[in-house]
Amino acid sequence: MPVYEGEEVRALIAQCLRGDQAAFAQLYAMHAPAIHRLCYSLLLSRHDAEDIMQEVFVYAFKNLLRFDPARAAFKTWLYTIAVSRCRNTYRRKRLLQVDLGQVFNLNLAAPRSETPEAVLAQHSAQDMLAKALAELSSSLREAVVLRYGHGLTYREIAEIMECPPKTAESRVRLAHEQLRWRLNQAGRGILEELLGI
Amino acid sequence: MMTGIMINFKLRYCKARMLAYIHGELPPHSRRRMARYLDECPRCYAEYQRQRALIAELQWTLPAFGAASGDQLARIWSRVQADMRRRPGSVRPLYHAGYGLAALMLAVLLLLPLAGTGGASAAASLTQPEPALRLVASTTLTPGSPVLSATLSAPATAQGGQTSSVPETVPPNTPRPFHAAGE
Q1: Which chain B positions have a beta carbon within 8 Å of A166's beta carbon?
Q2: pTM attached to this predicted model
Q3: How far is B17 from chain A (nearest CA, A)?
Q4: Given an 8 Å threshold on Cβ–Cβ distance, is A36 in contact with B60?
Q5: Which residues fall within 8 angstroms of residue B162, CB to CB, at 6 or more apart?
Q6: Could you tell me if A145 and A43 are in contact, meaning their C-beta atoms sit under 8 angstroms apart?
Q7: How distant, in Å, are the alpha carbons of A10, A12, A23, A25, A165 from that of A15?
Q8: Which of A36, A148, A180 shows the shortest C-beta gap to B66?
Q9: What is the pLDDT of residues B24-79, one digit of tens each?
Q10: Which chain B residues have a beta carbon less than 8 Å from that of A31?
Q11: Burial class (CB within 10 angstroms; exposed 0-12, middle 13-18, buried 19+) of A119
C-alpha cells in the first residue's frame, strides 16, 4: 500500500473541497496511471478506457463529499467507480469487442532477456496471455487484474467488486485455473517458455 | 493401486490450496502438509512450478498492461478539466435543493387524498339544503303570530289542504321541484 494513501490524500481532498485546482491535478496525477491500466485491462480498448477514465475522475471530483475515508481508501473508492463504469460499458456492448490489434501491440515492459530468440518467445507468450485474458468472463478478469495487475488484497478486491472476500478469492482462483487451461489449450508449452521453466 | 489413489488425493489437495500456499495465506498446519506433499509427490511439485510460473508472469505482464503514456494522461486531464468547467459547482453538497423539492412533492402527494376527503365533505354540507323546518318550528310557537299563519297557509293551498312540513322560507327565485311544477 503506498504511503500517500494516508494523510497526504486526505489533505489533498480537503484542499479540493476548498476549490484548490492544483490539488485536483495532484490527485489526478497520483491515480490516473493505475485507473487507466485498470480500465484498459477490463475493456481492452484504448478509446473506451479513456472515456471511462474521464467519467471516473469527473464523477469522483464532483462527488468528493461523498467519499468517506473511514470506509475505504481513496484509491479503492476510485477503483470501485471505475469497475462500476466498466461494467456499464460491458452491458452496453453486450459482447465485448476485443481490439486484438491493440492487444497484440501492448506497451509491455522491457523483456528480461535481450537475446532476439528470448524476446520473440516472450512476446509470443505475452500475446497468448493477453488473448487468454480477453477470453475470461468479466468478473474473473476483474478479479485477476485487480489481484495481479494492481496487487490488491482479497479484502480490497471484495470491496471493489462488492462481494465477500471468499468470493473474491475463489474468483481469482477460478481465473487462474481458466488461464492455465487456455494457455495449455494453446498447446505450445507456453508456461514452460515463461520464466525459462 | 493404493499409491495411485494417494497421489491423486495429494494432487487434488495441492491444487485446491496452491494459490493460497504461494501467497502465504494458508494456516500453519495446512502449510506444513502442503510442503510435505510437494516434497513427496513429483506431480504436485510440477503443479506448484506451473502455478508459480503463471503467477510470476501475471505479476510481470499485468502491471504493464494498458500503461498510458504521459501525453495520453495529459489529454484525458484536459478533458476532465473541460468537463468540470462545463458543469460548474464541482463540489456539490450531499443534500442539495433537489432532495428538498422531492420531499415536498412527496408530502403533497401523501396529503392530497386527505385534503380531497375534507373538501368533499365540505362541499356536501354546502350543497345539502338547510332543514328549514327546525328553524320554522322554533319560531312559530306563538299562536296567532304572523309567521305561523304564513307557514301553515301556504302548504295547505299547494297540496290540497294537507299540512306539510316543507319549509316555506324558500327564497322567491328558487326553482320549484319538477313534480311540483308538473302538478
Answers
A1: none
A2: 0.61
A3: 9
A4: no
A5: B155, B156
A6: no
A7: 9, 5, 6, 11, 34
A8: A36
A9: 888 899 999 999 999 988 989 998 988 888 888 788 777 877 888 889 899 999 99
A10: none
A11: middle
Task: Give B174's DSSP letter.
Answer: S
CB contact (8 A) between residue B56 and residue A194: yes
C-alpha cell at B169: 322560507
| C-alpha cell recorded at residue A47 | 478509446
For residue A30, what is its C-alpha cell? 497520483
Neighbours of B84 (CB within 10 A): 18
B70 contact partners, CB below 8 Å, separation of at least 6: none
Per-residue pLDDT of chain A (197 residues; tens, 9 = 90+): 444 457 888 889 999 988 888 999 999 999 999 999 999 888 888 899 999 999 999 999 999 988 888 888 899 999 999 999 999 988 877 544 544 444 444 444 444 455 666 666 656 666 777 788 888 898 999 999 999 889 898 889 999 999 998 899 889 988 988 887 887 766 545 555 554 44
